[in-house]
Every structure is written in C-alpha cells, then in structure tokens.
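Q:
My hope is that you can spare some time for a protein that puzzles me. I hope you can help me see how the letters and the tokens relate. Thank you; the sequence and its tokens follow:
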Amino acid sequence: MKLQVAIDLLSTADALKLLNSVAEHVDVIELGTPLIKQQGLSVVTNVKAAYPDKLVFADMKTMDAGELEADLAFKAGADIMTVLASAGDSTIEGAVKAGKAHGKAVVADMIGVVDKAARLKELKALGVSWVELHAGLDEQAQAGYSIEKLLEVGRKADVPFSVAGGINTDRIEGVENAGATIAVAGAAIYGAKDPGAAAKALREKIKQLG
C-alpha cells in the first residue's frame, strides 16, 4: 500500500518546507484544493520541479469542464487529478479523455456521494483510474464520525481505491486490511509537532503490515 500526504497548507513556501521533511517517506504528494485555490496551479509546477520522482496529485475536485480542467492540471505537471464522483458522467468522461491523452491518472473523489455502491459501478464503466473513498474535514468533525463506514464500502468495491478521512497510525491497519492501494494522510502529518517523524511512523507501520 502506498502512502499519500495531503497538504492543505496555504502557501507554496509552506508546502515545500513541509515536503523537505516528509517527502522521503511518501509515494504521492497531494496538493489540496485550498492550496491550489490560494496559489493557483503554479504550486503543482513548483512541487513537481522540486520532486520529479514523486507522483504529484492535484486535488482539483472538478465538477464541470472535466476535459479542460484535467488538461490544465496535467500541463501544470500533475501526474494525478481529481474529478468529483458526483459530477455528471460527461464531465468525468472528459477528464478521463484528457488523462488518456496525457498518459496520466484521473481519480473520482467520492466525497458527498450517498449511494456509494451504485456510483462505484458507474465510475468503473466510465474508466477512472481509481476512486478515493473520502470523508472531508467537515464530515470528520461531526460527532460519531467513523472511518469504518468508508472501509466497509472499500471491502465491497470492485475497483481500486484509496482512503482519506482522518488516517493515522491507529487507523492505517484497517485501511490496509480493507484492500486499499493508497492511504491518504493529511492532518496526521502536516498537523504533527514533527511532520517528518509522523510520516516516517506511518511508512513504518505500512511496512510492518506488508
């Protein structure tokens, strides 16, 4: 299972500073939606230039103009971009078309999708590279949130999937056991007192599980 760091900091300088201590421990660098909205796609270009051997994930959360937005992300240097699973099929098809043209990956973010099982089948047919089972920050902040709901969907999924939603060293074993190909950690890394140590601990936990 690969480890993906999700960076929701709001400046390119802060993102690069964080990556200086965590990049060696992760496989995928995700530049979060707030970061891209604040800095523009130049942050994608700058991070890819600094870490050309890492997969750079632009969390675009595209809801319309799928081919156009995917093309913009890939031209900026992204290896992976996201389209919302709740977007219209034509939007997802457009993003997938751009992904194929560039030889890059398009991920469908399942945030906010109610009937996840039904949408997963449709997304597989639409040709996305994989899906991200995702509980956003607002959902995680609600009383009673449990990552188990995402993992239950994953265990029944017939498509490759990643999981994002409060992953830490205590929860990562469940993510591995559910069959995820990528575990996405955000605040557990960037919010830690020592982000490098936090990323290293997650990486070591994955190695132990493997």
